[in-house]
What does this fold into?
Amino acid sequence: MLLSLLVSSQPHMLYIVVFFFHGYVLMMPDMFATFLLVANLT
It folds into this structure.
């Protein structure tokens, strides 16, 4: 209800939320893989 009200008032907010959520989900495995890579190199 609140989300639909926010989206109807400011549609660009939805894109920002989706962008950050998508980036967060994608970055978690990347950071974990980078951590494993650095741990293996050192």
